Amino acid sequence: MIELTRKLVETWGPPGYEHRIRDIIRDEVSALSDETWVDGLGNLICRVGSGGKKVLVAAHMDEIGLMANYREPESGYLRFSAMGGLRADTLNGNRVLFEDGTVGVIAVQNGGGKSLGDFYIDVQSDEESNAVPIGQPAGFMREMQTRGQRIVAKSLDDRIGCVVAIETMRGLDRQAPNEVYFAFTVQEEVGLRGAKTAAQGVRPDIGIAIDVTGSGDQIRGRKMLVKLGGGAAIKVHDPGLVVPVAIKNWMIDRCEADNIPYQLELLAGGTTDASAIQLADAGVPSGCISIPTRYLHTTSETVDIRDVGACIDLLSGLLANPIAI
Q: How is 163-212 classified by DSSP, letter by letter?
């Protein structure tokens, strides 16, 4: 699991440009599924099994990034816009990788730093400015590190959710009593776009998003029940999703039956692919299994390996047993 995580988090793939990470995931899952395809928006969808309840499991491939949108005429420095939720307080000094391989350094104007307009990207290779084309996307650069039971990396949101889905596929019996569609979705960070088309295409009976969530165990941090090392986080509510009681209890009952550590997630800000899936067609009962994560939307997002394992165990148990909801 560690090396798979490293491979995924260090791969480039901002919203709308997920082709590299999609190719890597497809290599991992093609032999694990009965059918694999890419839909019109770019989602990678894998079917495992047939008959029984039709379940859509969604984990998004994209990571936060930026788009070069203007070059200063004298210096050649690039101005940029956000692709996803960039945090101005974390940008200064970060390195970014453009699609053509150019490495840039984000810097801030003197006295600035409160808005994206205060920042620029230095892509100079010598005295002449590097001609990075305007309209080229970039993703952040950072190698993954492990620290005991912790993984520290960029883009754990939501590559670690993709890891949970892949590892669940590895252990899932193709004769299991449900028809499961694993969707590795695109453009979640810019509006849950991939989940919308995936749900409309699959038309599932039940939806499950696999995504990260915040933690309440940081000094002077948010007031939240979730903590690293506390187990899989079962979502109860976020601004985009009120989880049906039957879905929440289904997940809790599975954890208790299989002795899987869990905690309840009530998220005050943000949402996941589940909020898009629930609105497909006439409505889809949807929930979310979340991986507790510190320092979200930075290049040092941090998760606990034991929580990741608990999420794999929970998703595996849900899909391996008949669904009576």
A: HHHHHHHHH--TTSSSEEEEEEES-GGGTSHHHHHHHHHH--SEEEEEEE
